[in-house]
User: Which sequence fits this backbone?
């Protein structure tokens, strides 16, 4: 497989996952607003922090944030941009992707491109988000049933899981969930709502209920989202999948210790003593690990650094 | 609902399906019967089925000037163009003869230059050609073949005679549409294929693979073949990816390849580097190698010319082949055939006036309103002026362009291209002008496609068939007749 093609598949998958995660996050935020009393204003700006920690939007309202997240062409992480990038990558790798999956991506692209901003009221937005999520699920279904389990599959999987863990680490950052204790006393009584928001966004609410059978509270939700090995969207389960995908790549140029270190690090977190600040730190650490992993994959397989014989994998610091 | 125009009745235009008395030509009887029985509703339903088939299979092409919609569905007409196999066989012989002679010519000008010494072709015509590559001088590619793939455009005049309008020897395109047109027509008109003995076109991909395999510098069973594309924004990207798939070749861009110190070409894969034996390139000469050709090129491979000169890699078509598809050189092709093969040309040339020659230029300027004036070195129908269909201002503007730089213009009489029935915007059938581009291959042997890509000018009376200029296409059927069955 050509290195360039492998890189396109990897990014194709990252962008599809980014679009889906964004749609899920926006859906969850909607549900939250509908439950919040009008006396507690939802901090829309914090939603933007998921994508851009440096974001300085100022006082923007629901409509503007939703426009930025969903259909803004100039925002590189909007759903529209993610799907457009995904399709561009797919056009170049068309011969490797099942035809159904390619058609599915085209339809998703057509759907989002047809949206006109001015007419996006709450119900239209919510419908669009559901359609985007369904389209992304259909994409995965087509790959699941018809994609050869070859190197192309491994790069698609890697892109998907790395993006998923990255988005997850951003979503549970307290700066985003707004569950910081510094919030008003009134907000505290709605804390459970914030956690539910996260669980719903990753589609894990029911499974959490089944597996823990207790009220929603921070420590056990973090345990579930970060460490559960049976819930496929948890951080640890995704990292284990990444390990399996790395193992089938030629010459094992990427050092598995990096990923193993992330799993061990998550296991070692003292969830019972977690403060908003330490949670933010931990998630920053996860993102740094992923960034290093991405660099290693790129250097080893996408950008030709050395000939086939010698390993070019970077060593762990 | 079948229109027979006055132009056909009076013999001013040759129709491929209908004689001037309105009766079907031999071989076309069943098709005409079939079309006569089609109600407008059925015709319209078939038309929709055909468009749906093209959309769902993603058969597309790109228009450069259309920034918002770069990927367009391929326009295919419902009515095929027919040719009897006995006529096709003769045409095929003519095409092979022509390519053979052009390859002798290319090998000669880049080596012995006998034809220049003997004054068959003017020396300055070769050296001044924008497609002449001095670096190719002295190279002897495998089988001394330079142009491995040739797409010559054929037209028929009002007497019914076929002419070669131009030869495309650089990166001829369109063959994927020939193959896809047939596959779509079989879905939409299975009953027509039962009634006719239509020669299949599907052998082309295997022939192309045999031709490319024979070029390999390494004597291995399955050489590594790549299709080199400029990338997704090229108008023919669909074709590049289609052909790569059909050949089982890797579709590569320049950045996927590099030339090592052993002069061999390698491609970069996730498994490591793999040596490449044959490059079926779909990028122009000037972009091939930024080290020695166009230094601005982002599309090429640094060192590729060195690898090719050393014989470590085969490039199809070979760099410098474009000299032979220059529209000025075109007028010398009949002499080239006689000189190198000692045979009379089987296929005729359209009379061509060179604006660089003072006498011929004077004739062109005097008869501008009757002639077709084309740039000598452009393709895709850009810059063509059809005298009888032009306004006074357009004629004045072209006159000034000719006087300013005579070398770049040629002129030909306006041929009244033959017509064939075509579905119109209004949904009925009327004659529209057509041409034909067959594809001929040459390396250890010669191969010819069975038929070719037929292009049709969808606008009534128009002679411009290029898809980039609003033309459509037709499936082309070579039909067995008494002599060949």
Assistant:
């Amino acid at each position: 497989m050509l290195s360039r093609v492998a890189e396109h598949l990897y990014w194709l998958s990252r962008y599809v996952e980014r679009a889906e995660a964004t749609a899920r996050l926006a859906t969850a935020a909607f549900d939250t607003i509908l439950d919040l009393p009008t006396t507690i204003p939802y901090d829309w700006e914090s939603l933007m922090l998921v994508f851009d920690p440096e974001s300085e939007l100022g006082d923007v309202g629901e409509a503007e944030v939703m426009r930025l997240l969903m259909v803004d062409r100039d925002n590189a992480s909007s759903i529209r941009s993610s799907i457009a990038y995904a399709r561009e990558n797919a056009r170049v790798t068309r011969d490797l992707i099942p035809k159904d999956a390619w058609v599915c991506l085209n339809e998703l692209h057509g759907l989002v491109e047809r949206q006109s901003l001015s007419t996006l009221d709450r119900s239209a937005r919510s419908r669009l988000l559901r359609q985007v999520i369904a389209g992304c699920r259909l994409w995965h279904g087509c790959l699941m049933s018809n994609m050869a389990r070859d190197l192309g599959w491994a790069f698609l999987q890697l892109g998907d899981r790395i993006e998923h863990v990255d988005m997850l680490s951003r979503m549970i950052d307290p700066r985003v969930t707004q569950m910081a204790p510094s919030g008003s006393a009134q907000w505290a009584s709605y804390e459970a709502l914030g956690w539910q928001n996260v669980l719903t966004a990753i589609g894990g609410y029911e499974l959490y209920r089944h597996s823990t059978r207790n009220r929603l509270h921070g420590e056990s939700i973090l345990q579930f989202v970060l460490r559960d090995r049976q819930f496929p969207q948890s951080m640890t389960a995704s990292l284990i999948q990444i390990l399996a995908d790395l193992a089938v790549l030629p010459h094992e140029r990427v050092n598995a210790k990096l990923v193993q270190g992330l799993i061990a690090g998550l296991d070692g977190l003292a969830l019972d003593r977690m403060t908003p600040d330490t949670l933010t730190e931990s998630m920053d650490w996860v993102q740094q690990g992923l960034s290093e992993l991405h660099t290693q994959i790129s250097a080893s397989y996408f950008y030709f650094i050395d000939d086939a014989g010698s390993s070019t994998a970077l060593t762990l610091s | 609902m079948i229109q027979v125009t006055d132009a056909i009745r009076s013999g001013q235009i040759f129709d491929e399906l209908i004689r001037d008395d309105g009766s079907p030509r031999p071989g076309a009887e069943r098709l005409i019967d079939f079309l006569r029985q089609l109600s407008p509703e059925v015709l319209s339903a078939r038309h929709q089925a055909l468009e749906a088939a093209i959309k769902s299979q993603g058969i597309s092409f790109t228009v450069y000037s259309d920034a918002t919609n770069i990927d367009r569905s391929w326009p295919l007409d419902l009515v095929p163009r027919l040719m009897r196999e006995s006529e096709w066989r003769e045409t095929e012989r003519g095409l092979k003869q022509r390519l053979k002679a052009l390859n002798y010519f290319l090998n000669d000008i880049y080596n012995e230059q006998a034809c220049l010494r003997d004054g068959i072709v003017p020396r300055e015509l070769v050296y001044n050609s924008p497609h002449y590559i001095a670096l190719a001088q002295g190279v002897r590619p495998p089988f001394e073949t330079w142009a491995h793939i040739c797409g010559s455009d054929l037209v028929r005049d009002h007497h019914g005679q076929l002419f070669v309008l131009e030869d495309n020897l650089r990166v001829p395109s369109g063959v994927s549409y020939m193959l896809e047109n047939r596959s779509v027509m079989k879905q939409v008109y299975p009953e027509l294929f039962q009634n006719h003995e239509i020669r299949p076109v599907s052998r082309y991909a295997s022939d192309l693979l045999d031709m490319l395999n024979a070029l390999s510098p390494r004597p291995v069973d399955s050489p590594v073949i790549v299709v080199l594309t400029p990338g997704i924004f090229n108008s023919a990207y669909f074709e590049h990816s289609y052909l790569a798939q059909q050949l089982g070749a890797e579709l590569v861009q320049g950045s996927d390849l590099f030339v090592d110190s052993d002069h061999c070409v390698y491609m970069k894969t996730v498994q490591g580097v793999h040596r490449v034996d044959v490059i079926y390139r779909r990028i122009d000469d000037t972009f091939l190698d930024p080290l020695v050709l166009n230094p601005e090129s982002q599309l090429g491979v640094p060192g590729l010319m060195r690898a090719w000169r050393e014989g470590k890699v085969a490039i199809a078509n070979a760099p410098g082949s474009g000299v032979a598809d220059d529209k000025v050189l075109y007028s010398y092709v009949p002499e080239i055939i006689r000189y190198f093969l000692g045979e009379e040309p089987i296929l005729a040339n359209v009379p061509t006036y060179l604006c660089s020659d003072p006498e011929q230029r004077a004739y062109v300027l005097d008869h501008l309103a009757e002639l077709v004036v084309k740039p000598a070195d452009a393709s895709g129908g850009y810059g063509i002026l059809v005298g009888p269909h032009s306004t006074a201002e357009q004629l004045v503007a072209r006159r000034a362009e000719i006087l300013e730089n005579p070398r770049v213009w040629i002129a030909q009489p306006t041929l009244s291209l033959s017509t064939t029935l075509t579905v119109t915007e209004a949904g009925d059938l009327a004659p529209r002008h057509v041409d034909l581009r067959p594809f001929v291959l040459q390396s250890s042997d010669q191969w010819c496609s069975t038929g070719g890509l037929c292009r049709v000018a969808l606008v009534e009376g128009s002679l411009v068939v290029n898809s980039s200029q609003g033309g459509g296409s037709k499936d082309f059927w070579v039909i067995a007749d008494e002599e060949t069955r």
Q: What stands out?
A: Chain A has a mean pLDDT of 83.
